[in-house]
Amino acid sequence: MSRGGVFLGYHFIDEDGSFVLEEPDNSSYLYLPLVNPAGVMSSITPDGHGDNKLSQDEFLLPPVSACDLHGQAPSRNFWCYIRGYGPWSVYGQSAAQESRRYTDHAEPVSMTAGPFWQKIMRTCPETGLKAEVLSFCPVTDTKAELMKITLINEGDKPISLVPLTAILLFGRGADHIRDHRHVTSLLQRFRITEDGIVLTPSMTFDERGHQVNRESYGVFARQDANRHPDAAIPLVDDFIGEGGSLLWPQAVVHMKQNDLWKSAGDHAEGKEGIAALRFAEITLQPHKSTSFQIVMSYNDDGKEYLNRERMDEAFLQMKEYWSMQKSILFKTGDSNFDFWMQWVTMQPQLRRIYGCSFLPYHDYGRGGRGWRDLWQDCLALILNDPEQVRGDLLSFFAGVRIDGSNATIIGSRPGEFKADRNEIVRVWMDHGYWPYATIQLYLDASGDYDFLFEKNTYFSDSQLQRGELISKKQNLTPDHQLMTKNGKPYEGTVLEHLLVQQLTQFYDVGDHNHMRLRGADWNDALDMAADKGESVAFTAAYAANIGDMAKLLRHMKEHKKTDKVWLAEEILLLLEVKAKQYESSDEKQQILKEYCEKTGSGVSGKRKAYPVEKLASQLDWMSAWIQNHIRMTETVEDGEGSLWFNGYYDNHGDPVEKSQDGVRMMLTGQVFAILSGTATDEQVARIARAADRYLYDQKVGGYRLNTDFHETKMDLGRMFGFAYGNKENGAVFCHMAVMYAYALYERRFAKEGFKVMKSLYEQSADFDSSRIYPGIPEYFDPDGRGMYTYLTGAASWMVLTVMSQMYGVRGYKGNLQLLPQLLAEQFDRDGCASVTFHFAGRKLNVVYINRNHLEVGDYEVEEILLDKTKLSFDFKKPEIKRELIKDLSKDEIHKIRVILQ
């Protein structure tokens, strides 16, 4: 991020962001995703731990949580029984190697990795045998994980050895890691083939209704060109032996005991499985090598990769595929930051595949993507290619209920929604905020205002009145669609869906006339104040949405898109309200109740025209009322020049944040007070001082989510039961920290925003402290370790902030705006900083040229050249018209030089 930045631990080695890490096995909890478009979701550690699955019900390898990465034997292993030496694991996973790890006889180990592959290199000093273990997934429709093991004799004497795989086979759903683990093992059926072992359970075990199983799981292997295994053991008990273990299996230690080894055509059943595939003894001459191709797959997929050349081709194809996915590339004065950002830009794509489940730290949920997550993941995807996500954005609106709440889990099929992953009646009051914020970004990036008039259905289930009522009489359709009184699915425009979300939320208030907290807001751990809790933080956030919708409507009218909008007639109940009624929380609640009761069993299907200017004026009133109310009632001062906003009320109806008797401050309320414009410029400066004084901790990565309340606050949320400094209770929670930076930049407090971003980057990149691969985690714990890596909304907001705020490169009403806020230290020695990206279907390279190394605030855009053509522009808001960009060739990268003076 600044010139001379360095990493501790790993170092980058190429333009793809590949890196080398020495002694990776001396760091706990490291894992890399291995993934492909076919749906394989794997995780792998430097010593072979991790799992592999297609879904919650289809695990090829045993499911793991983070604590299993060091507490259990690995799920992948490969052994060499070396004559005259004994058992040796290419992953270092033998009892003998483990005992030597922290002695002078420890084996040299290094790792090279990239998106999304790893190669482990390990040498046995006593014999000179070196192993290289390459792991990745092919980027085809093949449901497989591939592993190539190369053995090299680096000594000066021949080495005789017997090689064999040892890969655990689980072959069932994650629930059975404890629920009926033994019983489900009785269903296992193993078949030995020429190339490996296939597990096909007899049935899928489900006490609600057992089914015939049609899924198989296999491990296959060959040596070099075409040498098959000569024997196999499919059962763990037989492999480890009585009293043995996976770290010292008797089948390897006592290689001469051959009576348990089986041949092609043999079968086994009724126990836990392993793919132990033994090859014939070989002798490696000095400086010679041999390789083994291993395929872990579903339903016999991927056997073509048992050919060495095909596997090598697949590896190169995989590297090229993931390199092509990185469509935003930054260049600053710190090349390490640039490479690190490449990994961050990939994280939203991982969330699209994994959701918030299926990696070791993400051991909650059963798959599917959460409502809030999918909208925020789209932020980064929109920056890459708005057209790519248009269909997804439209389909998401089918999850909105007519009462403004929504289904919280999105299924694997377009338009598939579930009320909640745990079947709990729950309303997150922030959920209506994110769709509009995301759609606004989409409209600015694409100029596609016709999108607002696309239609979709509403979600309908037994939850009514924003979760207040459960109806068993509800007439539900198979697709959970809201029906009209005459029995037809009702469809409303995207604009109508967005209005319903904002308007219902405006009236859903508590005693202090701020929006009710209900089940929680963005902070899921504020989940114990459903009765009297209020979220001032997101009340401010909604005020921004409502005000921005008014501007959007006027823009559409101005450009003759429409002078009226058609709305379901029931929605007019929320619009025909006098401003004086805003002052009464009771009246607002009654208005919402009447609306919910009128729409609870369906809608009439009739639509009414509503004048755009009248609607925009109504929204302006609502937004202004909220902001004024918060400014008048929720400021907290410490008497030393700092100020912040109270962000919450607890379940006793008391304000949560205060300055007396121990400062209580939370970051979320400050973020949305700043971002929404509720805080004045003078207040923003005072909030920043308060955050620096009470929340900033450089040792753990920057700004904590809250101060220590020194209380298990049972009237607000589970977070206060967590040890302070962890997760939502006072950790540096990267998602909200990045949003704090974004808010500061949005208000032109660039230096303060940069401090936030730099702290997060440096903590992530300091491997000695964070102990994570490149990327941004969910949070940093009290020791500064990065936690919950990869699957975090912080990544989308990091990309969005760097792109649209630091670089100031963003869409604005369909045009390309250029408003940089880069600090002097972010430019290279020549005074240049650049970003390569797609806009309007063209590939662009924006280069900012700051020859005099001026500081942010001291420079302005002086000149813009598109390729070699000098452009005219508005100096207050420099931008390039969309039509000009669309006239450019699609076949080349077009350079935009921006001179700063």
UniProtKB/TrEMBL annotation:
Keyword Transferase: yes
Gene3D superfamilies according to UniProt: 1.50.10.10, Glycoside hydrolase, family 65, N-terminal domain
Domain Glycosyl hydrolase 94 catalytic: from-to ranges: 329-564, 640-806
Transmembrane segments: none
Pfam families listed in its UniProt record: Glyco_hydro_94 (PF17167)
GO biological process: carbohydrate metabolic process
Xref: InterPro entries: 6-hairpin_glycosidase_sf (IPR008928), 6hp_glycosidase-like_sf (IPR012341), GH65_N (IPR037018), GH94_catalytic (IPR033432), GH94_Enzymes (IPR052047)
Tree of life domain: Bacteria
One GO MF term: glycosyltransferase activity
Keywords: Glycosyltransferase, Transferase
Protein name: Cellobiose phosphorylase
Organism: Blautia liquoris
Lineage: Bacteria, Bacillati, Bacillota, Clostridia, Lachnospirales
